Amino acid sequence: MKNIFIIINAAILLSLINLEQCPAAHIPELPKIEKGRVEPSLIIESGQKEKTQREISAETKFRIPVETNLLEKQTKTKLALLDDPEQLAIKYNALGNLYEEKGMHDQAIAAYEKVLNLTPDSAMAYSNLGNVYSKLGQLNKAIAKYKHAIRIDPRAAFAHNNLGNAYYAQKNFSKAIKEYKIAIVLDSDLFYAYNNMGDAYLHKHLPNLAIRYFKKAIEFDPSSYIAYANMGDAYVAKACIPEAIKAYKKALEIKHDYTSCLLKLANLYKKEKDIAKATFYYKNYIKYSNDGKKIETAKKEISKLEGLK
């Protein structure tokens, strides 16, 4: 399934650009997953009856990074020239992606609905609609769309992951974990599902399990600063402060202006009575943050620390 989407996305991108040359405690090991084999009991019926960090977009893996106005105009121009319903649906789906990335939610919804008019059995289009409704905060609508996508294609790992995100947003962490597990069984390379799973376990106050899945996410994507930051949170929950500091610093090696980690490190060093390091991270937080209230709080903390010298 993953290879199919990669091929489709590559084909879309080429067709769009060809018009012009656009410049811890012991935990059992994770189960070994045999691709192509799914435990039937893990597949739910769609008719049955989501922050720490949601920055890893569940749909990113299946997106085309289109940004320019020229590309949007090219897409619209090509739409009028196509007759084949499936090819036209692919173009509308790409246009929907573009609108969604720009925050033009109504237009994105209209484009995805056009896809469904042309190809009613598109699990991807239903999942994309769910993503838009989720961004709008309409979680019940989003869940309904994700379930419809799963009803069409029970093996659509991305739809199960997205459904897990919606349940996470509703703070139904048990249901979220169930969907993330299904997504991982269907596609064991779905690295963001491991991070999401760890996040949900952390909210269920199971930091050891959370760390296990954050490590798995990092194994698949060593550049995931969010997984490192989340792992730092899990170590804090275990009162393992040195390990938490190492995880937060690793996140900052990848993204030096990650304000969340800067503030957490400042607070940890303050508790450790390391005035120099606490002051350093508060100052860096102030440098990169745009949160006025927290900036003022950080400035007050620096004043207090300076009084302790």
Write the layout of secondary structure elements.
Layout: H1 2-17, H2 69-79, H3 85-101, H4 105-118, H5 123-135, H6 139-152, H7 157-169, H8 173-186, H9 191-203, H10 207-220, H11 225-237, H12 241-254, H13 259-271, H14 275-288, H15 292-307
What does the model show?
- Residues 1-68 have low confidence and may be disordered.
- This protein is elongated.
- The protein has 309 residues and is mostly helical.
- Helix 9 packs antiparallel against helix 10.
- The chain has a domain at 1-23 and 42-187: Serine Threonine Protein Phosphatase 5, Tetratricopeptide repeat (Alpha Horseshoe).
- The chain has helices at residues 2-17, 69-79, 85-101, 105-118, 123-135, 139-152, 157-169, 173-186, 191-203, 207-220, 225-237, 241-254, 259-271, 275-288, 292-307.
- Helices cover 68% and strands 0% of the residues.
- The termini are far apart.
- The longest helix has 17 residues, at 85-101.
